[in-house]
Amino acid sequence: MTMEAGDDVKIPHHVAIIMDGNGRWAAGRGLPRIKGHKAGSAVIEDIIDAAVKMGIKHLSLYAFSTENWRRPDAEVSVIMSLLRFYLRLHTSRFRNRGVRFHFLGELETMPESIKRDVVELEAATAGESKMVFHLAVNYGSRMELVKATQSCIKDGLKADEIDESAINSRLWTADVPDVDLLIRTSGELRISNFLLWQCAYAEFYFTDCHWPDFNQERFSDALESFASRERRFGRI
Ligand code: IPE
Ligand code: IPE
Ligand code: MG
Asked: What would you report as the CA-atom Rg of the chain, rounded to the nearest whole angstrom?
């Protein structure tokens, strides 16, 4: 079943997805891992379309973690090329769909050409307001929390002034609501340093499907599962 905006169901404000399984998808077809990354990057557009249609306001996709630099140079370089390609190709598609692009992660240490493309894309889509698409690259939740804490100290906050909102407003997700639904593809039951703070009360949805096989219908299944859950936030 495909859900539509306006259906009488609970729609999460913020959906985050750990796009895992590109390598295994490729291995299963006797292909090199990079083919998996290519196939995986093509799925992103369909999921953005579905999310906009559903009325989701924030969609965060985990594309490259701070730990993924530990992979072989050749694989990292293919992923960076795909990212470059993606940032340049999709400017008008974001605008046509009313989607604002946001780079979620440590941008400073990224290669110069990517930095430029990110700044351009963020500026070009800054006026869009249907949905914010957060692409998590060079993202690590622990790094984000360490930086937020350092920033509190640099800003001269005293110990008793460091509260949840002081930290929240210094995260890369400042002004973004907490994650309501976290999806992970490809069967691993872990969070891998993604949005640890922001997922404090997220609902989790795991599927064995590898990311390149994920599609709008499977996304809909996850949203249906979310809609059927009772969230309590500590209350009875
Ligand atoms: C996810 O797929 C993409 C990245 C982490 C960049 P993987 O590359 O982790 O695929 P598996 O987990 O090895 O199958
Ligand atoms: C998490 O996947 C990171 C991304 C999907 C970008 P990994 O494949 O890197 O996670 P682990 O190493 O299996 O935990
Ligand atoms: Mg993986």
From this structure: 18
